Amino acid sequence: MKQTVVLKVDSQQPDIEKVRVAANIIREGGLVAFPTETVYGLGADALNSKAVTALFEAKKRPIDNPPIVHVENISDVYRLAEQIPPKADQLMKEFWPGPLTLVFKRSETVPDVTVAGLDTIAVRMPQHAVALALIRESRGPIAAPSANLAGKPSPTSAEHVFNDLNGRIDAILNGGPTRIGVESTVLDLSVEPAMVLRPGGTSLETLKMILSDVKLHPFVVTEKELAIENTRSPGMKHRHYAPKAPVIVVEGMITAVMATVKLLIANYWLQDKRVGVLATAETAWAYEADVVKSLGSRRNVDAIAANLFRLLREFDEEKVDIIITESVPTEGLGLAVMNRLRKASGYNIVKAG
Ligand code: TXA
Ligand code: MG
Fold first, then answer.
1. Is residue 114 lining ligand 1, measured as CB closer than 6 Å?
2. Positions of the chain with pLDDT lower than 70, given as ranges
3. Considering every ligand atom, which ligand is closest to the CA of 184?
4. Beta bridge partners of 293
5. The domain boundary residue, chosen from 175, 203, 221
């Protein structure tokens, strides 16, 4: 077991001494969790293959699923990647720092383990003072997957990181809860037209303002598990975001969804199961179940995204046998929310109405 040090920092003006302590750990090949605007990341020196190998081990992550490499200046992208198309410059100028990850052909300077043996690399510049200061003080790109144990919901607070990884990593920079709450959008620029591999913090509507021909990978909108050969991003094929209890997603018009959720609750109660419901502010009052939690108002998908992973984790403490969740509109960040809920359920989707 390692001794995991927690360093509390201001999210906007982090204490540079504490950031330097963390940066030294990274430079020496250690592992540091840090906040970004999306979720907490677990960082290692992206150019140190031993450190990146340790990163996979700490998370218990399958080694075929590469992390995102985080930079704090655009010139680093040109060291890590090749064949950077002109539209990438426009995207980086418009959306960085921010929740958009770009996939390019990799350069030879990147160790194989950092890209899990792929011929591409995923890069992003996070919009968070702590993350940017850590990368700057480490003097190099930082490989950072989300700082959760593989398969669990991504961490949106330092407490979530601590619960999953205490004793397995060297330090946590605690900069409070993250703002966006779902991970970055992963956009593949190594194919034509550009393709969204994972919906996230940068909405499709926003991307289309610059990339009118952008496509969604079929996996992003699928309602069932795709055959592995159809995946383009290794993360697509792994079980993800899952609380301890099984999850059922109920989709359809909201009145039909409510009726179906009630039927399901009644059914599980007949089997003496402890039932949790994940609802919204407008509908939560209507359910009688063992535990009812509200994601927030259906009119504010940004708030729903910010609450999602915390609520999924809270159900673990409620010891429910089953979690029934409503669907939310797929506009804006709603697309990312529904993608995570469907994955959390293992595509256990019930169509209402
Ligand atoms: O917001 C985020 O993106 C957070 C914060 C910490 O930056 N990071 C994050 O990392 O969510 P992770 O490792 O949990 O998810 C990275 C995703 C995975 O689905 C992975 O398969 C995909 O990006 N990915 C990484 N490299 C790739 C590549 N070369 N080609 C396609 N997909 C790639
Ligand atoms: Mg992850």
1. no
2. 225-239
3. 1
4. 278
5. 221
